[in-house]
Amino acid sequence: MSLMAKVKEPFIRFDRRVDGAITFFVKHYGKTKFMVAMSKKAQYFGLEGLFLKGPKAFVYFFMFYLIRDTILYIVIPIWFATWID
């Protein structure tokens, strides 16, 4: 049994006890369950179909993504670049 398997096995057991919450968090870092569900619906219905199903949820979905992505991909890199400089 390799070292990686020895470390991974207890982690997987614990993750199963918490209903996969750890792997969900790692896989969808920074996303809420609502955002993940809406992403799947957007892929299935398309953006126009998603908007027609629920305009309010559609707007919340894009607001969450806009805020999250702005922080992750614009604010943090700019802050990091100024911190290094």
* Rg on CA atoms, Å: 18 Å
Order of helices and strands: HHHH
**How large is the share of residues in beta strands?**
under 5%
Mean pLDDT: 79
Give a quick set of tags describing it.
single chain; 85 residues; mainly alpha
How would you explain this protein's 3D organization?
With 85 residues, this protein is mostly helical. It is 86% helix and 0% strand. α3 crosses α4.
In short:
This protein has 85 residues and is an all-alpha fold. It is 86% helix and 0% strand.
What's the topology here?
Layout: H1 3-17, H2 21-27, H3 33-53, H4 55-84
Helix pairs in contact: 3-4
